[in-house]
């Protein structure tokens, strides 16, 4: 049985992949520059998600208005863990949440068809005071997954779920240091 609160992600020794969905203008500018640039907003929180399936649910497989493009954002594990070290759960005291540089919330993980599962995926909100650090120092690469997402969606809708799953990024349990587990895990 899957533990209820565990981070699953595509990662290597140095980096972790998180996903975001954007309007075409934001995605195109970022991909051209190789980093986030205007019209990406550096003045409001941006939410990053290591769960590909959760983002597919959230963006309706890149069909939701303003979320038509899916980017894989490769960031340093050092940056990821630094962000988590500054996190406050969105279920914490409202005053603490309001002051936090980073917000963490856990939402039900989703199946390929969008059904809620019995375990949760982490969403991390990088606040406006850390946005430049995220964009300039932590992000090391951007990849447009939109064609892959559209193909996987079409295969799923056509009843070819196993073929669609071959297009999903690999995810495995992320080895979170114990000190960070205490920060981001509900009920600790």
Kindly list the characteristics that best describe this protein.
8 helices, 188 residues, alpha+beta, four-stranded mixed sheet, five-stranded antiparallel sheet, 35% helix, globular, 29% strand
Structural class: alpha+beta
Question: H/E element string?
Answer: EEHEHEHEHEEHEHHEH
Low-confidence stretches: none
Mean pLDDT: 96
Our Rg estimate from Cα atoms comes to 16 Å
Compact overview of the structure:
With 188 residues, this protein is α+β, with helices and mostly antiparallel strands.
Task: Give the secondary structure arrangement, pairings included.
Layout: E1 8-11, E2 15-22, H1 24-33, E3 46-48, H2 52-59, E4 69-76, H3 77-85, E5 87-89, H4 94-99, E6 102-110, E7 116-126, H5 131-138, E8 139-144, H6 146-157, H7 161-165, E9 172-173, H8 178-184
Parallel strand pairs: 5-6
Antiparallel strand pairs: 1-2, 1-9, 2-4, 3-7, 4-8, 6-7
Overview of this structure, please?
It is a single chain. The protein is an alpha+beta fold and about 190 residues long. Helix content is about 35%, strand content about 30%. It has eight helices and nine strands. The strands form two sheets. It has a five-stranded antiparallel sheet. Strands 3-7-6-5 form a four-stranded mixed sheet. It is globular and about 45 Å long. The two termini are about 20 Å apart.
